[in-house]
Amino acid sequence: MNIKLILNIATHLLRARLKQTVVAAVGVTFGIAMFITLVSFMNGMNDLLDGLMLNRTPHVRLYNAIKPSEEQPILVSEKYKRSINFISSVKPKDRGKAIYNSQAIIRNLKQDQRIIDVAPKITEPVFFNSGTIQLSGMIYGIDVNAEEKLFQLTDYIIEGKVSDLNQNNSIIIGKGLADKMLLTTGDIIKITSAKGNLASLKIVGITQIGIADIDDKMSYTSLTTAQKLVGEPTNYVTDIQVKLYDITQAPALAKEFKSKFDLDTIDYQTTNSQFETGSTIRSIISYAVGIVLLIVAGFGIYNILNMMIFEKMDSIAILKATGFSGSDVKWIFISLSLIIGITGGVFGLIFGYIFSSIIDVLPFNTAALPTVKTYPINYNPLFYVIGIVFALFTTTIAGLFPALKASKVDPVEIIRGK
């Protein structure tokens, strides 16, 4: 098989049907360009939403949960444990929110090579006082440096600086809460803890995540200030937040830490399962639409090559009569299809990148996502590889059936018919 000659013949056939060739190539170009654009945008959106979730969620959280006792006293009694016991009105057991020996646990976790870092936290329900009105909310006492390192609080601060929390008796509140109470940085806010302790804290910043329920109730202060507010010693911690180098290990490590430290644990996948489901569905939709576009382009190529075979029966008969085998004829038409696929595919990648770049600079301003200024785009090279591979696969299959048909043409019947 003379590859150069086959490609030369295929090129001449394409030039003879230039308009149809251009239409087929444009179909492939459009399909790939839309596939690249759609997948890049949808994955960019997934990255944005996952980032909002992951930036605010520890990979593993250690805490004390309020739950019923696993063993009731009657079940460990020698007299009754072998009997059938009916227990009603079981009350939950409260071990207290404080993590016992928290400093030793934190030191142990920081020595683990699988862990990036650890951030202790105090979670405390409070009331924000505005005259006679009390608004319920939540205050988080944080290790400012560790929290900033692991969760990038700065990305959500619209007024002030996170580092200002290192000042005594300072607080950062959510924008929704600030709007309700007509507060701004520099103002004093009065807080009542669940134990009835009163405190007056200076507002040094305002944060906005974009989720109304959080922005209306959330506030941050330093660990020391939170410990004073709840009247607890300096080793008081209610949560230990862990971030991992390999996020996929989170479920396994959550189980390991639960057994090792006798604490309740939860991994990020369990905490945010709805986000995971949404990201998966969006990815499936984007890939499905893109693949459908390429399949439609493939049908266009199939129709064009099929028509070309009917119109070029004389040429095929002459080729076979002059010594070209059925395999040679088959490869001529497969080459036609591949040339269309490669040409359309390359231009599709170029236009896909151009369209993605245009979307990437379009302004996207919304109060729900204050840190996002343009539409999100993911320029993962894998999308471009998938696009060109699938384009070649589709066009090859589209050209294969007409090529097989052409290879079986009997030159004697064609010439006799003429």
Can you walk me through this structure?
This protein is an alpha+beta fold and 418 residues long. It contains 15 helices and 12 strands. The protein has a 6-stranded mixed beta barrel with strand order 4-5-10-7-9-8, surrounded by 4 helices. Strands 2-3 form a two-stranded antiparallel ribbon. α2 packs antiparallel against α11. The two termini are 29 Å apart. The mean pLDDT is 80.
Write the layout of secondary structure elements.
Layout (H helix, E strand, L loop, with lengths): L2 H14 L1 H39 L3 E4 L3 E2 L4 H4 L15 E2 L8 H9 L4 E16 L2 E10 L1 H8 L5 E4 L9 E5 H7 L6 E6 L4 E10 L4 H4 L2 E5 H8 L8 E6 L5 H12 L2 E4 H4 L1 H39 L1 H9 L4 H36 L19 H27 L3 H7 L1
Parallel strand pairs: 5-10, 7-9
Antiparallel strand pairs: 1-11, 1-12, 2-3, 4-5, 4-8, 4-11, 6-9, 7-10, 8-9
Tell me the strand order in the biggest sheet. 4-5-10-7-9-8
Shape verdict: elongated
Instruction: List low-confidence stretches.
Output: none
> What amount of the residues lies in strands?
15-25%
Q: What is the C-alpha radius of gyration, as a whole number of Å?
A: 33 Å
User: Which percent bin holds the helix content?
Assistant: 40-55%
Assign the structural class, choosing from mainly alpha, mainly beta, alpha/beta, alpha+beta, or little secondary structure. Answer: alpha+beta
| Largest beta-sheet details | 6 strands, mixed, barrel
